[in-house]
Amino acid sequence: MQVRTGNSNNAAVLLNAENSEKIENREIPDSNISFVSSSKATDSRSYYFIDTHAHLDMLKQMTPDFAVSESERQQVKYIINIGSDLPGSIKSSEYAFRFENVFAAVGVHPHDAQDFDESTIKELESLIARNKKIVAIGETGFDYFRNLSPKDSQKKAFISQIELALKYRLPLVIHDRDAHEDMLSILKHFSDNGNNKDFRAVIHCFSGDRRFAFDCLEMGLFISFTGVITFLNAKELVNTVREVPIDRIFVETDAPFLAPQEKRGQENYPGFVKYIANKIAEIKQLPLEVVARTTSKNAEDFFNLFNCWS
Ligand SMILES: [Zn+2]
Ligand SMILES: [Zn+2]
After folding, report:
1. Is 107 within a domain?
2. pTM for the full model?
């Protein structure tokens, strides 16, 4: 496993010598959008973004190596790569070994819940035992939109993964699509209505309404937004973004899916996460720097990024 080399400027260590000079003087490409900026001119290199949810193993038009190095050029300091089935979780762990700035979540998506059994739990546990950069369990949860696995299998797999998270004191990355009611009853139970501080979770790619968001916040959860908030028809979601406190928000791409509006038609990758941060800045009338710093700090604390290095 690669060892962390310093507190802050380790983003550059993966870059080869040939690239590093360019990085020093870099302009942010893609600057054809008008980012919200603070009244004082801020050096954009003084802050960075964390893509808290990406599937590098599912990229089709670029290699994970290219995606990671190109994301660094776009001020993405860390990427949490998410497992969605067992092979994906194994890959996720591999990437965390291979790339210094990539961390891993391991878990099984509700789509694949019907294949989840005791042996899956054992495999996930052996991954966790071997890699300290596995910082979360997920993604897991409910997907009643596509219902690719029966509801009872989804529930069984979800509860097993919640128990795994509690056992290893890891947070959960939760997928919730069209299942808000069932989700709430599980969350209320395991979080003891917000009183169990060992239960830590984020609802990724948040798609609920304001009411559901506040129920989740009350239970101590974080809320993560994707490029969906940039879509032209995302009016209700924009209102939710406006009301959720910035210190409870993460940004994520869910790459290779859900490219932000400005990049629709292209393959999404973690380098596009700044478009989501910028939309949040615009909605909340905050400087982009504040959104970048706050959401990055939220994610660093939640995933305990600075204490998991060996
Ligand atoms: Zn998901
Ligand atoms: Zn995902």
Report:
1. yes
2. 0.86
DSSP code of 303? Answer: T
Q: pLDDT per residue over 205-242, tens digit each?
A: 999 899 999 999 999 999 999 999 999 999 999 999 99
What separation in Å is there between the alpha carbon of 210 and the centre of ligand 1? 19
**What is the identity of the amino acid at 105?**
A
Domain that holds residue 130: 42-307
Per residue, the 3-state secondary structure of 93-137, as one string, reads HHHHHHCCCEEEEECCCHHHHHHCCHHHHHHHHHHHHHCCCEEEE
Ligand nearest to the CA of 105: 2
Residue 4 lies inside a defined structural domain of this protein: no
- Nearest one of 140, 175, 142 to 161, comparing CA atoms: 140
Say how many Å lie between the CA of residue 54 and the centre of ligand 2: 6
Q: What is the pLDDT of residues 165-197, one digit of tens each?
A: 999 999 999 999 999 999 999 999 999 999 999
Q: How far is the CA of 84 from the centre of ligand 2 (A)?
A: 7
How confident is the model at residue 35, as a pLDDT?
52
Residue 81 Cα to ligand 2 midpoint, Å, equals: 9
Tell me, what CATH number does 189's domain have?
3.20.20.140
Q: Within a domain: residue 70?
A: yes
Give residue 174 CA to ligand 2 midpoint distance, Å. 9
Domain presence at residue 23: no
Tokens describing residue 7: 């507190």
Ligand 1 centre from 194 Cα, in Å? 23
How many domains does one find in the chain?
1
Are 174 and 183 spatial neighbours (Cβ–Cβ below 8 Å)? yes
Which ligand number lies closest to the CA of residue 142? 1
